[in-house]
């Protein structure tokens, strides 16, 4: 007992850190466990009995998979828009000196420094005043807007660490501007652009607050989950949450393994 | 979220600006062409909406007769007096959640940066992993975790924790759901990764030799932390608290899903005024007031943090 206390005192920071990690992971475990529940009523909040029914029929709830595909499509388009616009801005900010730099930097920073509900509410007043019909298009416009800043930050960080001499070298070797951009600049900036795009996709796919204000009667996946908190939560929601978690973790682990192997393979020749 | 960048990186290395062959005027226009579409998007869908919201907040009228700008500023005063408690709650809950995030997040960031060794990448994945499941689903999971007479609440009750939180006005009786404690728990949980990641980045940059040097000079681990580690991690603390406090202050999801009518925050009022009551002027005024409160707190905080950093 005394030695246990001594050990605890020595490792108090580590224990606290692991406790925090448990706090972070606990809901994911609950979501996973309750995807195998057979709830007694409309709500899936208390454990009843083991069942794999929801896993065998993940689309068995009306509108669920429809909302999921809509969210995926919206996220893809928003990612495309935000990545293209954001990458252009990032290059302008990282590579050129011009007069409006400070103002543009502030314009990029502000959407990230504002509570989401303020942006959502102001967008709604814009659409109401313009008489725009709320639907997938207004959601797409809104998502592209708030993802833009995050793409700029991610791409800018990468472009700033790029060595401009690589492009000079390409030009010295008689590469045209287009060739230089496609064969040198773009490949080097690619990890930053990919990071920005992934972030934009995740933010758009999971966004609730801005979608809530701009979607009208359109139901994205987060909107579906929100509604289900009032009407009754089908087990299928937990199934989809678990599947998303597992797929994403496997992707990350696979990517890590691939990067490790590539590093190992190229290590001898790199020197 | 550094905002400003040091004006070095591009165009350094003693090189003349690239592409000298092109005519200078056309070259000078390149950045503007690159900026144009994105900046236009932000001006039309970020700045212009704020202008429209400002105008909406000084309108009077009704949904049937239409709204008109009458420069009716008392809406702001009414909103503030009617929903004062909601503002107080927002700042209080978001502030408590931010403090808890710092308290919980620091050891974890420290663990990942200094003690994890080859487990570092795995731990980082575990911090980001919760993001992969839709955050609304995870917030709903807290309903299960904090369920009345569930194991968690039972444990908190027997250890006397609930007596303490009841004394602080965070809980009532032997329930956790539908109390401020549940809302703060949800907020803390949802924004914890936004605290851990900047903290980790700041800690990871610290040269471990500084710790060794301090230890060689007979500093105890606590002194090393107090005089070396923590001051050097301050940039991470500042960006982490901002990344946590700002979104938490406008959040209405945790208060809606885990709280009760007594735990509503400003976000909840803005949402219901805009989407259910359809009282647009009041909603717009509230939204602006929230923005003002957040900006005020953030500016004050950055000033304070900035001076402390120098001392």
Short description:
The complex is a heterodimer of chains A (271) and B (311). Chain A has 271 residues and is an all-alpha fold. Chain A has helices spanning 2-10, 12-34, 53-56, 64-95, 101-109, 116-130, 136-160, 164-172, 177-206, 209-214, 221-231, 235-270.
Q: What integer value in Å does the Rg of chain A equal?
A: 24 Å
The value of Rg of chain B in angstroms is 24 Å
Low-confidence stretches of chain A: none
* N to C succession of SSEs of chain A: HHHHHHHHHHHH
Helix/strand/pairing category of chain A: mainly alpha
**Describe the biggest sheet of chain B?**
2 strands, antiparallel
What is the arithmetic mean of pLDDT of chain A?
A: 91
Instruction: Return the CATH topology of chain B.
Output: MetI-like fold
Oligomer: heterodimer
Biggest interface, which chains?
A: A-B, 98 and 95 residues
Give me the secondary-structure topology:
The complex is a heterodimer of chains A (271) and B (311).
Chain A: H1 2-10, H2 12-34, H3 53-56, H4 64-95, H5 101-109, H6 116-130, H7 136-160, H8 164-172, H9 177-206, H10 209-214, H11 221-231, H12 235-270
Chain B: H1 24-57, E1 59-62, E2 66-69, H2 74-82, H3 84-115, H4 120-128, H5 135-145, H6 151-158, H7 161-167, H8 180-204, H9 208-216, H10 221-232, H11 234-250, H12 253-258, H13 266-277, H14 280-310
Antiparallel strand pairs in B: 1-2
Helix pairs in contact in B: 1-14, 2-14, 3-8, 3-11, 8-11, 9-10, 11-14, 13-14
Give an account of the 3D structure.
- The complex is a heterodimer of chains A (271) and B (311).
- Chain A is an all-alpha fold and 271 residues long.
- Chain A is 77% helix and 0% strand.
- Among the domains of chain A are: 2-34; 64-218, MetI-like fold (Orthogonal Bundle).
- The radius of gyration of chain A is 24 Å and the shape is globular.
- Residues 1-15 of chain B have low confidence and may be disordered.
- Chain B has one domain (84-310): MetI-like fold (Orthogonal Bundle), CATH 1.10.3720.
- Chain B has 311 residues and is mostly helical.
- Chain B is globular, with a radius of gyration of 24 Å.
- The interface between A and B is large, with 98 and 95 residues.
- Chain A: Pfam families: BPD_transp_1.
- Chain A: This is Polyamine ABC transporter integral membrane protein.
- Chain A: It is a multi-pass membrane protein.
């Amino acid at each position: 007992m005394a030695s246990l206390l001594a050990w605890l005192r020595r490792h108090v920071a580590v224990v606290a850190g692991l406790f925090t990690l448990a706090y972070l992971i606990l809901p994911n475990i609950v979501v996973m466990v309750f995807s195998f529940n057979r709830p007694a009523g409309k709500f899936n909040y208390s454990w009843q009995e083991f069942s794999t029914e929801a896993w065998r029929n993940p689309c068995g709830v009306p509108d669920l998979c429809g909302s999921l595909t809509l969210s995926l499509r919206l996220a893809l388009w928003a990612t495309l828009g935000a990545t293209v616009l954001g990458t252009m801005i990032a290059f302008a900010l990282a590579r050129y000196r011009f007069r409006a730099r400070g103002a543009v930097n502030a314009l990029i920073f502000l959407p990230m420094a504002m509570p989401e509900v303020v942006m959502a509410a102001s967008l709604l007043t814009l659409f109401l005043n313009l008489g725009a019909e709320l639907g997938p298009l207004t959601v797409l416009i809104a998502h592209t807007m708030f993802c833009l800043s995050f793409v700029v930050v991610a791409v800018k960080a990468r472009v700033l660490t790029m060595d401009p001499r690589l492009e000079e070298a390409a030009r010295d070797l008689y590469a045209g501007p287009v060739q230089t951009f496609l064969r040198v600049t773009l490949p080097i900036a690619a990890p930053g652009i990919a990071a920005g795009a992934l972030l934009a996709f995740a933010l758009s796919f999971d966004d609730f607050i801005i979608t809530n204000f701009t979607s009208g009667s359109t139901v994205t996946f987060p909107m579906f989950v929100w509604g289900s908190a009032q009407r009754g939560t089908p087990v299928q929601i937990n199934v989809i949450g678990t599947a998303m978690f597992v797929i994403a973790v496997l992707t990350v682990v696979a990517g890590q393994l691939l990067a490790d192997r590539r590093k190992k393979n190229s290590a001898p020749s790199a020197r | 979220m550094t905002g400003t960048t040091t004006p070095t990186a591009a165009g350094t290395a003693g090189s003349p600006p690239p592409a000298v062959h092109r005519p200078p005027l056309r070259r000078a226009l390149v950045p503007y062409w690159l900026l144009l579409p994105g900046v236009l998007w932000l001006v039309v869908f970020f700045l212009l909406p704020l202008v429209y919201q400002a105008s909406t907040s000084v309108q009077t009228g009704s949904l049937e007769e239409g709204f008109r700008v009458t420069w009716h500023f008392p809406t702001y005063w009414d909103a503030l007096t009617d929903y004062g408690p909601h503002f107080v709650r927002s700042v209080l809950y978001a502030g408590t959640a931010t403090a808890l995030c710092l308290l919980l997040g620091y050891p974890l960031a420290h663990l990942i940066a200094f003690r994890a060794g080859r487990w570092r990448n795995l731990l980082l994945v575990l911090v980001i992993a919760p993001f992969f499941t839709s955050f609304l689903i995870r917030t709903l999971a807290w309903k299960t975790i904090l369920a009345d007479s569930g194991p968690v609440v039972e444990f908190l009750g027997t250890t006397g924790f609930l007596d303490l939180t009841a004394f602080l006005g965070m809980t009532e009786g032997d329930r956790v759901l539908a109390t401020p404690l549940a809302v703060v728990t949800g907020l803390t949980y949802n924004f914890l990764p936004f605290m851990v990641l900047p903290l980790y980045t700041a800690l990871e940059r610290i040269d471990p030799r500084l710790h060794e040097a301090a230890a060689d000079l007979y500093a105890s681990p606590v002194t090393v932390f107090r005089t070396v580690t923590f001051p050097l991690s301050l940039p991470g603390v500042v960006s982490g608290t901002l990344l946590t406090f700002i979104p938490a202050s406008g959040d209405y999801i945790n208060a809606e899903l885990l709280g009760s009518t007594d735990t509503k925050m400003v976000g909840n009022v803005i949402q219901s005024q805009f989407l259910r009551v359809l009282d647009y002027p009041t909603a717009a005024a509230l939204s602006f007031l929230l923005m003002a409160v957040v900006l005020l707190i953030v500016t004050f905080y950055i000033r304070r943090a900035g001076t402390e950093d120098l001392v």
